[in-house]
Specification:
The chain has a domain of 122 residues. The protein is mainly alpha-helical and 324 residues long. Helix content is 70%, strand content 0%. The N terminus is likely disordered.
Length: 324
């Protein structure tokens, strides 16, 4: 007699469970296996952004992930995970238009890029929206919130949003943050995934602090960034993962915005993890920022301010053809 909650391997529920486990294993291999290539010393091709093609056989991995996301035979949780990985493929890369075309060049994501009118971050946000709505995933909710909040910060320079749109984006960003918090219990216990969720929640809290002020957002952002850093440092692969420079870049940006010179040494310590790593993704993003003068207006202003605090970052930005 089978224990309650378990199914015979040949039964329909058993086959669905086996398929789900296989899909999850393939996703892990496709995604985390790819990230290991970023840490290897093998020769890799230059990409269109002038940085390393840091995920090796990227089209093959995305084809696999896309197949899982679109297969209704898999549980919603697995499909939502696959959709998040598609969004992450852009957000954790150099974030250029060329990179977006590589990530979103297959159906159904090509329609997202068209609907976003060529805005790669907006296309990624549409994918994150679908992931979070299909099955509660904290990181997908937080990434969807991040784009909306960042658009509001960009608008301070670009002035491209009307009052109604700004109010809607702020409302949606806060709603996604709240929904992500409610879904926290659905999060995997894997330290790398928990670190990722803490990182992107910290980003959203930090953006909302810049938009609205308030100690709750400021305290929440700092706590999340610190927790992400601790989790990454405590795992075997964490210290070498591509997440490390991203987390520290965002953390330095937050500290500078929230505390300024009062936390100068901590800002420099965080930036040291960025300038010493020079991973393909973050280095590529800095190169993209040198020429994208409107798409990432908030980030350009942030990096220009940070370059005045840290000489190493200033030197790195000049290597990426920034005019400082």
């Amino acid at each position: 007699m089978m224990a309650e909650g378990f199914h015979a391997p040949g039964s329909v529920p058993g086959k669905r469970l086996a398929a789900a486990l296989l899909a999850a294993a393939l996703l892990a291999l496709a995604w985390f296996g790819g990230s290991r290539h970023a840490r290897s010393s093998r020769t890799v091709r230059p990409s269109a952004d002038g940085v390393q093609d840091y995920l090796g056989d990227y089209p093959g991995r995305l084809d696999l992930i896309t197949a899982v996301a679109g297969n209704s035979a898999y549980p919603c949780s697995v499909r939502a995970q696959a959709l998040q990985y598609v969004g992450d493929s852009f957000a954790n890369g150099p974030r250029s238009r060329d990179w977006a075309e590589r990530v979103f060049d297959r159906k159904p994501y090509s329609s997202d890029l068209r609907a976003a009118r060529g805005d790669p971050w907006k296309a990624a946000a549409r994918v994150y929206d679908r992931s979070a709505d299909l099955c509660p995933r904290p990181a997908s909710h937080f990434r969807a919130a991040e784009w909306r909040a960042e658009e509001l910060l960009n608008d301070r320079t670009r002035r491209h949003l009307d009052a109604e749109t700004k109010a809607r984006y702020l409302r949606e960003a806060k709603s996604r943050l709240e929904r992500g918090n409610r879904a926290w219990d659905c999060l995997s216990e894997a330290p790398m995934q928990r670190a990722y969720a803490h990182w992107v929640r910290g980003v959203v809290e930090g953006h909302l602090f810049l938009l609205e002020g308030g100690s709750e957002h400021r305290i929440g952002a700092e706590a999340d960034f610190k927790r992400a850093i601790i989790l990454l440092a405590g795992t075997r692969d964490g210290p070498r993962s591509g997440q490390v420079p991203w987390v520290h870049l965002y953390y330095a940006a937050f500290l500078h915005a929230a505390y300024g010179d009062d936390r100068r040494e901590e800002i420099r310590d965080a930036l040291e993890r960025v300038t010493s790593a020079k991973t393909a993704a973050t280095a590529g993003f800095l190169a993209v920022l040198a020429r994208e003068k409107t798409q990432y207006a908030h980030w350009r202003a942030t990096l220009q301010a940070l370059a005045k605090v840290d000489r190493r970052l200033r030197r790195l930005l000049k290597e990426k053809r920034w005019s400082l």
